[in-house]
Design goal:
Elements: H1 3-17, H2 20-24, H3 27-38, H4 46-56, H5 71-81, H6 86-100, H7 113-124, H8 131-145, H9 153-171, H10 177-200, H11 204-217, H12 223-241, H13 244-260, H14 264-280, H15 286-300, H16 315-328, H17 332-345, H18 352-369, H19 374-392, H20 395-406, H21 415-429, H22 434-437
């Protein structure tokens, strides 16, 4: 587009999005602003970033395109080169994805135009699949995964279905060994994300089946990668079936895989999950839980800057696991402190689901500590959890919130609990409470 075309588009979007100052600006003024961006003098401000993101998130024909090779990704790269920080770019990508997929019909939003062409040829002849195609499929899965917490799970599930189906069809064909090995890893990651999204959309049967496929597809691959998949499988099995014995067996298998692989972060994550499953057992397995937590800390106390699976776990996340273990091991005060640190470490839309879980657990720990005003403090702490649970619609945050609210039943007639109930009803059900209607 020419500067004049771009200025006109930005003014039109500003009117639709109610950015009054830009909507009222003269085209010549906007063109001068565009010239300064392109000269590298300074990046667009946050309002212009939003407008540009909405503009370039669609093709000239109006289709949503957020994936690799899209104009949207080119925009993010340009903003990065102009000095816009990574956190801001992630926030911009998340908010834009949530806005432009709102109709729920953008099924190919995360598949770039180049990937669609490449994929069409490979699906016609699976033996022609190559490593660049598989890299693009992996990027598409990562792009969907990055929107967890900002885009509703059902939309992500729909958007990701094309990648999952493509992996299945490619696996049905034959490829050279190097390509085949890469395909199995990419497919395993795609199936695991699809399993998570199926679980979050209450399709437990599909979630369990997809995790089994993810594990079987990655057999013989990097043990750390398979262990990471098994950690997700463990949690879904526990929450979908309530079978703690089966979940413990899966956690133990994840640890065995992780100990055979190169990633210390995945090993720490597997040990942390093993600790939680031991703590949740009836009766709690105190010694096993504490031993697993010690091993997790040993892994994280080493230098993990060069870990091959960077970003999969952190000390803040481990604080959350240790806190929830403390709830079941009778260490409520220490648990509340650890969960508070974990909550502070979790930020951004990507961590919002986990933050909601941690906040619910922290409130439960506060209540169980039994200090003066503990019930009122716990109820107050749950309000942020309610907001995050409503925003993300995550199943586990809602489950943990319900658990915390049940333990507040002795105070159900107190104003701080009735206020919390009103908030839960309004935010999660979307209707005024019965008490308010009366």
């Amino acid at each position: 587009m020419s500067w004049g075309d771009l200025a006109a588009e930005l003014r039109s979007l500003a009117t639709r999005l109610r950015f009054a100052r830009i909507a009222a600006a003269q085209p010549a003024s906007i063109k001068r602003t565009i010239a300064r961006w392109e000269a590298g003098e300074h990046p667009p401000d946050e309002r212009y970033q939003v407008l540009l993101a909405h503009l370039y998130a669609r093709t000239p024909l109006g289709a949503v395109a957020l994936g690799s090779g899209s104009d949207f990704q080119e925009l993010l790269a340009a903003l990065s080169s102009l000095g816009v920080e990574r956190d801001r770019l992630d926030e911009l990508a998340a908010s834009t994805a949530a806005a432009v997929t709102e109709s729920g019909t953008s099924l190919l939003a995360f598949l770039g135009t180049r990937l669609r062409r490449h994929l069409a040829a490979a699906l016609a002849r699976p033996e022609t699949a190559d490593l660049p195609l598989l890299d693009e499929l992996d990027v598409a899965t990562a792009a969907v995964d990055a929107q967890v917490g900002s885009v509703p799970f059902v939309r992500l599930h729909l958007s990701h279905a094309a990648v999952v189906d493509a992996c299945r069809r490619l696996l049905a064909g034959e490829q050279p060994p190097t390509v085949r090995a890469r395909l199995r890893r990419v497919a395993g990651t795609a199936y695991a994300l699809a399993a998570r999204l199926a679980f979050e959309t209450h399709d437990d049967g599909a979630a369990l089946a997809l995790y089994e496929q993810a594990v079987s597809t990655t057999c013989g691959a990097d043990p750390s990668h398979r262990a990471l998949i098994r950690t997700g499988q463990t949690m879904v099995v526990y929450y979908a079936t309530g079978d703690i014995a089966r979940a413990r067996r899966l956690a133990d298998t994840a640890v065995a895989d992780a100990c055979s692989g190169p990633s210390r972060l995945v090993r720490a994550r597997a040990h942390a999950l093993q600790a939680e499953m031991a703590a949740r057992s009836t009766p709690p397995l105190h010694r096993h839980a504490r031993a697993a937590l010690r091993l997790a800390w040993c892994d994280l106390d080493t230098d993990t800057s060069d870990d091959p699976m960077g970003g999969t776990f952190s000390k803040g996340r481990l604080e959350g696991f240790e806190g929830v273990c403390g709830l079941f091991l009778g260490e409520a005060e220490a648990a509340e402190e650890r969960l508070g640190r974990a909550a502070r470490a979790l930020g951004g839309s990507r961590g919002s689901v986990q933050r909601a879980i941690v906040l619910a657990d922290r409130a439960l720990a506060t209540l169980r500590s039994g200090g003066p005003g503990a019930a009122e403090t716990a109820a107050g702490q749950l309000h942020e959890c309610v907001e995050l649970a409503a925003a993300t619609r995550g199943r586990v945050p809602a489950w943990r919130l319900r658990q915390a609210r049940q333990e507040l039943r002795p105070w159900r007639s107190e104003p701080f609990v009735t206020e919390l109930d009103d908030h839960i009803h309004t935010a999660l059900v979307g209707l005024p409470s019965a008490r308010r209607r009366e």
